[in-house]
Structures are given as C-alpha cells and as structure tokens.
Design a protein that fits this description.
The chain has one domain: 3-Layer(aba) Sandwich (Rossmann fold), CATH 3.40.50.9100. It is built from 5 helices and 5 strands; from the N terminus they run βααβαβαββα. The protein has helices at 19-22, 27-37, 51-61, 80-88, 127-138; strands spanning 2-7, 42-47, 67-71, 93-97, 119-122. A 5-stranded parallel beta sheet has the order 2-1-3-4-5, sandwiched between helices. 35% of the residues are buried. The mean pLDDT is 98. Bound molecules: 1,3,4-trihydroxy-5-OXO-cyclohexanecarboxylic acid.
C-alpha cells in the first residue's frame, strides 16, 4: 500500500517550534524513522511552506497513492484551494494535526479541508501520523 505523507507550513520546524505545543522531537526525523520501520506501507514524505507546492504534490501523488496523510498546518483553516485539490484526486485523504486543534484558539476549530477528507485525526502528538496510516490501511477497499 502506497501512502503519501504531506506536511504544510512550519511543520519543518517541529522539534524547535513551540515545544510546549508540538514537543521537542524533530518531525522530519520521526517520519523518516516511521517510514523505515513500517513494513505494511510504502511511505513517501513531502513538506512545503508554499500552498501551491502542496497542491502540486496532492495532484502528483493523488492518482497513484492508496492514501494521503495531510497536515496542512495553518492552511487547514484557510485554504479552499487545498480542499479543491483533495476533492480532485482519487486517493482518500486523512487530515492530521499534532495538537488538539479543537481545544486551542477558535480559528483553529475551523477546517476548510475536513469535509473533503475521509477522517480527521488530531491531538495525539506525532502519533497522529501513525494513527492516520493505521486508518488508511484498515479502511483500504
Ligand atoms: C497544526 C495545527 C495548526 O493549527 C497549526 O497552524 C500548525 C500545526 C498541528 O499539527 O497541530 O501549523 O496543523
């Protein structure tokens, strides 16, 4: 099973950025280890701080991957263009967040992309990514 993990803006700084919220483990290192350790999926990793690059990657992998794990960062709360990209492709997309966005500032409770996604997994720290991969494997048709 091919799973593409796509991370949006500022997620390259997880490990340094606001450690009281996101922890102090570098996300890229965590995901590289996760991709190497999981034998039940072939996992690709992508990160960009640019909305259009995230859309390009969704389009690039979205017809060949069996699932996409997407942490769109702050674009979650603003981007109709990313929601449209998710709807445009065939791969199911799981919206992921490290933090519990529902218990933070009111603007983080709004997701422009959630209705285009098959599930939302948030608030489990970096384990949110493992849970999203588990979900895609368990719900694979
Ligand atoms: C985040 C939550 C977003 O609100 C925030 O803008 C991020 C990270 C998370 O993983 O908890 O950049 O997506």
């Amino acid at each position: 099973m091919k799973i593409a993990v796509i991370n949006g803006p500022n997620l390259n700084l997880v490990g340094i950025r606001e450690p009281e919220i996101y922890g102090n483990i570098p996300l890229n290192r965590y995901l590289e280890q996760l991709a190497a350790a999981r034998t039940d999926a072939e996992i690709s990793l992508f990160q960009s701080n640019h909305e259009g690059d995230i859309i390009d990657e969704i389009q690039r992998v979205g017809f060949s991957a069996d699932g996409i794990v997407l942490n769109a960062g702050a674009y979650t709360h603003t981007s109709i263009a990313i929601a449209d990209a998710i709807r445009a492709v065939t791969a199911p997309v799981v919206e992921v967040h490290i933090s519990d966005v529902q218990s933070r500032e009111p603007f983080r409770r709004i997701s422009m992309i959630k209705d285009a996604c098959v599930a939302v997994i948030a608030g489990h720290g970096l384990k949110s990514y493992d849970l999203a991969i588990d979900y895609l494997i368990q719900t694979q048709p």
